[in-house]
């Protein structure tokens, strides 16, 4: 009977999302985002959220961390770390929260989030809207979940580019003790000038400063927290190779590929397709996977790649792994598929069909 109850609860989220998606899509996208997270948090608080099923043989060792499974939540869904416990009920092997900036900022004017349903895509120009480091740290402290937590850090929009490293260092110092790993976000297209930090000279200086601070914090806390760098999908091949060389020079622990794209291939003629901002979802799938493959080749196994961008089904997740990723992250696919996408990716990547015991949660 207990197994039957657990199975029933596990089915709540996918079935409910299929039924609820038309209502959510009738709402303005940013409102729907908040309604979804608030509802999941309410369900978690009263014990009605889905129960993740354990997966046998699904662990991955990456960055010196044991990940229960290779499917994670990408940054941006929970910018303030306010929904960690609720999101943990969906079965992720790791959760990344943020992007957080040193000071609170409202982000870009609304509307700033747009669906492109014909292409299973999203355009956003959020602009690192968040409540700032102090509130963020308070939220993370309150979370009960003790799984693998990534914290994604950025710069304030009004910090001059020549002082960008100060913002990243301030964030790194503040979140270091709370994070399983820290991601340095230099690839959002929605903060003016941010992507300039991917240029070789600027990236060299930034990574040098971050690596020095990481080593100092590791001595202070007697614990090395891995650093990951998140890059854009719009880099040329020689730029990807230059990034890879700097990652190796400064012993950065992982690279996340990729953020959203500024390209509009295949969506320019669709409603909302030409809105300013970063495009995510299905149109990003091939572009992101190509960057992963190029990075994996340039890094030759020295540094792991975390694949994100356009994972809309289990086959997309498998393609990212085949291209050289060690782990994958989901975001836009969740908006179109709901929690069922997590389970499908786990089935494909962890071979659930070969592990019937895992299917029953034993």
What is the compact description of this entry?
The chain is of the alpha/beta class. The two termini are 13 Å apart.
Q: Which topology does CATH recognise?
A: TIM Barrel
Q: What percent of residues adopt helix (DSSP H or I)?
A: 40-55%
CATH homologous superfamily descriptor: Aldolase class I
CATH architecture: Alpha-Beta Barrel
Rg, Å, rounded: 19 Å
Number of domains: 1
Structural class per helix/strand content? alpha/beta
**Regions with pLDDT < 50 over 5+ consecutive residues?**
1-14, 352-362
Using the alpha-carbon principal axes, give the shape.
globular
- Count of separate DSSP helical elements: 12
Terminal CA distance: 13 Å
The overall strand count is 13
Order of helices and strands: HHEEEHEEEHEHEHEHEEHEHEHHH
Biggest beta-sheet profile: 8 strands, parallel, barrel
Overall average residue pLDDT = 92
Strand order of the largest sheet: 3-4-7-8-9-10-12-13
CATH domain class name: Alpha Beta
Beta-strand fraction estimate:
15-25%
Give an overview of the whole structure:
The chain has 362 residues and is an alpha/beta fold. It has one domain: TIM Barrel. The protein is 41% helix and 16% strand. It contains twelve helices and 13 strands. It has helices spanning 2-25, 29-45, 84-87, 133-142, 164-175, 200-221, 237-249, 285-299, 314-323, 332-337, 340-350, 356-359, and strands spanning 60-62, 65-67, 71-73, 94-100, 113-116, 121-124, 148-153, 181-185, 227-231, 254-257, 278-281, 305-308, 325-330. It has an eight-stranded parallel barrel with strand order 3-4-7-8-9-10-12-13, surrounded by four helices. The protein has a three-stranded antiparallel beta sheet with strand order 5-6-11, with no helix packed on it. Strands 1-2 form a two-stranded antiparallel ribbon. β12, α9 (314-323) and β13 (325-330) form a beta-alpha-beta unit. α7 packs across α8 (285-299). The model is unreliable at 1-14 and 352-362 (pLDDT under 50).
